[in-house]
Protein: Nudix hydrolase domain-containing protein
Organism: Selaginella moellendorffii
Amino acid sequence: MAAGGGNGKAQGGHSSRLPSQEMLDDLCSRFVLNAPEEELESFERILFLLEQAHWFYEDNTMEQNASLKSLTLREFTALMFQKCVALRPYIAHFDDIYKNFTSYKTSVPVTGAIILDESYERCLMVKGWKPGASWTFPRGKKNKDEEDHNCAIREVWEETGFDVSELIRTDDHLEVVIGQQRMRLFIVGGVPEETLFIPQTKKEISEIAWHRIEDLPKHSNESSHNRGPTGLKYYMVWPFLRPLQAWIVKNRPLITLKSDNGSKGVTVWKANTSGHTTFSTPIMVSHSVTVVAVKETTSTSFVDLPGKSFRNFRFDVPHIVSHIV
């Protein structure tokens, strides 16, 4: 996950009313004007702040105002540039600013964890919120100056409610580079299957389940989204499978608990996307068993660090606030 809250649109129907000027000013003040000075040094960093504001709008503001329209990140960001005093002077450059931001996002390192059960035959996976979302390992983008393992701890906690801070060993990790993005996953083994998992963010995760490693996809299928032998759709899983299996062979305890559920996957948490409640009763989901996994990766250099675009601007915060109050 990108660092922060949920990224999906609200599930219910909403009218087309846009947020008021007062709402937008509040979001700008809360997420941009009061941010640390170093977070305002480039438009790339500012748009990350606006992304957090967008999550807050979708997850909280809309829940309190059912008539509000759900907006994409681009729609929301464009509206903030049009309506907010601090951002309005740069509206003429919005297309370039947003293009640079989306390009930069694909280069931000991603970290997370591969959580193995006590049998070392299953790993914990999360499913995104939007319809048709894929299964993936709990993971997300690093914040500025954040250490890899700290990012992994934070992302796992946000997406599953499970604290791996005492379980992570920094040497036990797998890393691949796809395009311009580095992905590092720390391996955490021996987690009891009955552990309680509940996401800590809204509208980001729709389901959490233990998946058999043998059921995961073994090929790229020319796409980062691909299906395993069970027909389930996965995202950025196959590059880690071969090294994961090698790690398990080398590090698996001599005595492990045998999985009790044969060829079944176990859903441990699932959101009720038709409303606002969730349930955490385990659900048994039958899956078939096949396959041994392989890995393909590509590696290229990183793009430049953020901050080159429009680097010469600064916000005059007192002046801006005087126009809002």
Q: What stands out?
A: The CA atoms of residues 96 and 312 lie 16 Å apart.
